[in-house]
Amino acid sequence: MVTPLTSGSVLKERYIIQRIIGRGGMGSIFLAEDNRLEGRLCAVKQVQPEAALPEELRVQSRDQFYREASVLARLDHPNLPKVSDFFSDGPCDYLVMDYIPGDDLKSMLDSARRKGEHLPPRDVLSWADQLLSAIAYLHEQDPPVIHRDIKPSNLKLTPSGTLKLVDFGLVKQMIPDEMTVTVIQGRGTALYTPLEQYGGDTGHTDARTDIYSLGATLYHLLTNQPPLEAKQRFLNPSAFQNARHYNTEISPSVDRALTAAMALHPDERPQNIGEFRRMLLGDLPSHASPSAHPLARLQLPSADLIDQALVAACLFLFVTAVLSTLL
Predict the structure, then answer these.
(1) 308 with 159, same domain?
(2) Which of 33, 51, 124, 206 falls between 20 and 30 A from 179, CA-CA?
């Protein structure tokens, strides 16, 4: 029986629990104070084992937890929280990360929908740029790290405008020819989960799994419409509506990129984050806000002004030629 953590509980004689800030199927996330570093707040993820899990699988799960947590602790990217500690206490495993202040994008999406508004596409694409950088970094690890749980509630916007992918809930290393138990655990959130992930650890997931979840997340943020679950789309393909059906402010190129990312079969999606980024953002330099891009700021003259300028230039040349002839 797992003893619930309450305010004032101390883990590892170091982390003083303040309150719960998140809850999932396999555990909870708590806000805690690090008593070794005065004033430092951290997020502590508690992973609880399934009650009916056989002892042999419990041992395998814990071994996998330590393997995956050690990988996460080596990651260093501005759009990912830093994992600073991991340990076990009784039947539970714990992952300690930076606490990220700010609102998550699900809350911002809900607020916009209540007002009858959409989140500005320019802002969403700016966040997408940062998120693409973080996912590319994960996929470039050796072996690649697949997140498998990208969704609006796992994305937080700090007061300084930095987007953070805050939860490593389902992270999995892609180790060739090795079937592993995913222990920082769960199955993902159905709205953002591709068909191949429904098989849990028996299904083959790779970089294209994250591309689907990323596409579904951006679709939700841009349209205010929850994406249909992949299994529903499989049974009724005509039920899917592209993003521009719900929000005509979305450009055709972005619409095509989202539709491609959300293809049911992995082979029909962009095959890597770089390809998806080019489809979504074109040649926009990485980390540049679309609103800050030079072409976005450039105010081109209207057609009337161009015509007037051409007439003036021709008149100037004509007068110059006449004066030269007279002289």
Answers:
(1) no
(2) 51
